[in-house]
Amino acid sequence: MGTSTAYGGPGGGTPLIPSWLGSGSGSEPDTGQDEGPPPNSDDPPAPPAKPPIPKSADSQRFSGARNNFTRFAGSGGNDRASLGRAVSRYVSTSSGGARQAAQRMGASRGAGARLLGFLSDANTRGMREALREFNLESMAGRPISEVFVALADHICPGASTVDEGIAREAYIETIIDLAGEGLAGLDTFTPEQMDTVFELYATHAIEARICNDIGTKVVTMPSNAQVAHQVEKQLRDFIRGAVDDALTRARESTPNMTQDQVLAFVDSVYESAFSILQSLGDAEAEQ
Question: Where are the domains of the chain?
Answer without folding.
Answer: 63-286
